[in-house]
What we know:
The strands form two sheets. The chain has a four-stranded antiparallel β-sheet. The chain has a three-stranded antiparallel β-sheet with strand order 5-6-7, covered by helices on one side. The relative contact order is 0.08. The chain has helices at residues 33-91, 166-185; strands at 97-100, 104-109, 112-117, 120-124, 131-136, 142-148, 154-160. A hairpin with a 2-residue loop joins strand 2 and strand 3. It is of the alpha+beta class. The protein has two helices and seven strands; from the N terminus they run H-E-E-E-E-E-E-E-H. The longest helix has 59 residues, at 33-91.
Amino acid sequence: MEQRIGSSSQPLEGAGSDPAFVPGLTSPRSKEAEPESEAGEEAEGQGEVEAEAEQETPEVEDSEETDAEKTDAEEKGAEEDSEQEDSEEADADGPVFEAADRRARIVADRRGVRLTLDDQECEFRWDEIGAVETETARFGKRFTITVHTPDRRWYPIEIEAAARSRFSEWESQLDEVLDAYFEESE
């Protein structure tokens, strides 16, 4: 019986040896065509610079008007922010669940559930949530919360607790929030 050492697959001809074999790739430009095109580009570039210089003078006047509009928009934004802060303070009256460790954080309140891991965030309103599942590790101090959406997607997050005794406290706080807000949206 004869055995071969090495791969039994044959090398592919085409893309492996010839990049032009792949559709959509273009061949490199020839060096003879480059000097002509560069000279044409320089002439076009000078025309564009002159056109931009002519357009800049009217824009200066417009920018003064837009500054006033910007300050009005900023004032309106500040008013909206203060209204939003007031509404958040009003939302703080109900139960709130919050758990965090050095990397992850979960907040569940009147607005919904917010998950944060490092610099990534996602927010779910109560009408976007199909279920919220909790799981504790058999060994260790990891508390896993999974948010399920109606479109069969799930978003788990693990929070590392200081002690396993925190698990029951977190469970009861989360149940309180779910009882208060999750039933309301349905």
